Amino acid sequence: AGWMSNPPTVSHPAVSGGAIGLGGPSIPAALKHPRTPPTNPSVDYPSGDSDHVTKRRALGISDEMQVNLPVNVMPVSFPVHGHSQAFNAPDDLPKTVARTLNQGSTPMSMDFHPIQQTLLLVGTNVGDIGLWEVGSRERLVLRNFKVWDLGACSMPLQAALVKDPGVSVNRIIWSPDGSLFGVAYSRHIVQIYSYHGGDDIRQRLEIDAHVGGVNDLAFSHPNKQLCVITCGDDKTIKVWDATTGAKQYTFEGHEAPVYSVCPHYKENIQFIFSTALDGKIKAWLYDNLGSRVDYDAPGRWCTTMAYSADGTRLFSCGTSKDGESHIVEWNESEGAVRRSYQGFRKRSLGVVQFDTTKNRFLVAGDDFSIKFWDMDNIQLLTSIDADGGLPASPRIRFNKDGTLLAVSANENGIKILANSEGLRLLRTFENLSYDASRAPETVTKPTINQISAAATSAGLADRVTSVVALSGMNGDARNLTDVKPRITEETNDKSKIWKLTEISETSQCRTLKLPENMRVNKISRLIYTNSGNAILALASNAIHLLWKWQRSDRNSSGKATASVSPQLWQPSSGILMTNDVTDTNPEEVVPCFALSKNDSYVMSASGGKISLFNMMTFKTMTTFMPPPPAATFLAFHPQDNNIIAIGMDDSTIQIYNVRVDEVKSKLKGHSKRITGLAFSHVLNVLVSSGADAQLCVWNSDGWEKQKTRFLQVPSGRMPTALSDTRVQFHQDQIHFLVVHETQLAIYETTKLECVKQWVPRESAAPISHATFSCDSQLVYASFLDATVCVFTAANLRLRCRVNPTAYLSPGVSNSNVHPLVIAAHPQEPNQFALGLSDGGVHVFEPIESEGKWGMPPPVENGSASSVQATPSVGASGSDQPQR
């Protein structure tokens, strides 16, 4: 009998080290009695030699040679779809391009939700993760890579991130029930999020898992306990408790980086397959007794294996080092190739990825196209180019029912292909989402009957039953928040009409004034550290203030919070971080600073030389660039901490290499001092802004100026002579926020076009500063009348106003005290801090019962859930939202 003669049912085709037991006994016997595999003339076993360059290529470091990590078996059962229920080939293959999405960076790994089958997770080559509701074309979540707690990370990881902060997603995958998902990164780290429906994802675990890259990640249920399994460049496999993050097992024995893992079970025995880049496959039980199996993989270079959905047929797909690709079906009993499928390009231009669906079809991305085979026929069934624009070896992923196929495309795109049932499914969710967007946001929960009725009309009743069952585990419909049908009659209920949230009393929000031990006149610059546990301020007298939160019973995370007071921190030496100053009038000085990604250094200037400080000791590491001209804005290059862009008061921008103490380029294009700089690591550009109200886009490779545009200053608003213009990139790294005393605006970078603008009324106070929340879903703006406004970022619609009476002491006049700067917490989207003109710093959070800053107003004519969807508007007009 074959080693997998009685396989379990699985929810999705399983990629596995299945060839381990070809021609051998059943897996439990093989695990208990390791042996040398028999020689099989029908299988070509490679030498398994692998050098460093091969390893890097195999792990997808190069864009030209990208490897898609395998799909893993989940030990959970779903209904089996028999062969009689298969598609009627080829009409029911998902071949119609139904959606085209833009992720903002190159997709590296994708996974559909196991139950809500229109939810797609995406991980990219710059470490971003996205969650899409493909039915409504809505990107629910976009997160950039950030280490959540750098202090808890190993020194090798900290050193690696300083040397090269570039991070890619190697794997993103849902847990079996869709309540969690995991992300494996190319640098040491695994992050586990919990999913609560809609756009609600929450940080759960961060694990410094491996030295080097984490090459694969999977979930499994040994002993009925959910675990996370990882493998990495350090040649190990590790098992972690998915609840606590505690390490349970470390498996050592591979002599090369471990490329993939596949947990499986048979006859109540749980085990893990692992494959390494030297061609070795090993199998492990959940104990510390070492590998039970040690075989050579039947692929010439990178081979992955997959089962049909019912677990009865085994396939493998591989690409050799010289580009020869193949898909084969195995005879499990004899350990021989049953059939080899034809139709690949003679020399593939990348490592080919494949998938299976419905126990009937194979699909692979090859030769700039998608190729399909019937499992019972070696000839190519059909090939499609998905309307063009595909990479040489596109990444592919079916949803569980095989009705949708996600395909990576050029220019950071994702195409969603659908069959007739998939198109019906997408239309249903699109209609529900459209109905939702027309009603007030306060009416959020549909009834089960509404969902069932809508789904039944589209023939989707079975799917709704499973979705409802999932939501029932939580006792409510939280997991259905991406499906928001509304009863239109309810919109006439006066109690449901949207109203702007006004906060005027201290009891209506959580605020904390940070302690003061020294007197400063005003706060000129303010920032949270990247770790989120401290706030750094630069005062007008050139002194830096650093507040640190400590772990305690009241603050177990040690992160910044308005609930616990921090310590105004100084090193034991008692020295202060004080900038070099000149004889210039302090009111004319433009202070500036920038913090390194690992929070170790701050670069700062207050009209004199630029100083580099050590954040731990407060010691001055070096000073450089004495004025004139004086620095007015500083920004670290996102890929190299040694390169900084320095905006000057003579209107130039200097690109300076700290390591060699040399100005590499001097950029000229503005006519007044530089007041804002922002890099996009996706577009490889630098955006600059100046007191001349001009925006410039520069290529960050050769530093050529690409585009320039002046702000449209609203009529009736006369800015001051040297009004600052600030810029900040959205999380998508394609759009950016522009902040000017007369307006807030969102610009698209490649065309340098304004896609959304908000202008205060002529009688309103000028804007002093504004910033995106850490997830780019909100914009926090401060005003010279001490008011703070919170906007929905997608459409710049006002949702909450914090009045000065909510945080200023009684008797303090808001004509004398007002915010000059505002900063957003790097991990908590609803926390921000203000730096005031009297030297005070205040931290704000919504009250716990609310959890957020007001409700967004209803959106007319469809959803404005993404920046890309917002129409261009002029500088004025009746549709212009105003304070």
Automatic annotation (TrEMBL):
Residues 1-51, 848-883 are annotated as: Disordered. Residues 862-883 have a biased composition (Polar residues). One of its GO terms (biological process) is primary shoot apical meristem specification. It holds the Pfam family WD40. Keywords: Repeat, Repressor, WD repeat. WD repeats lie at residues 207-250, 352-383, 667-699. InterPro entries: Topless_fam, WD40/YVTN_repeat-like_dom_sf, WD40_repeat_CS, WD40_repeat_dom_sf, WD40_rpt. It comes from the Eukaryota. This is Topless-related protein 1. It comes from Davidia involucrata.
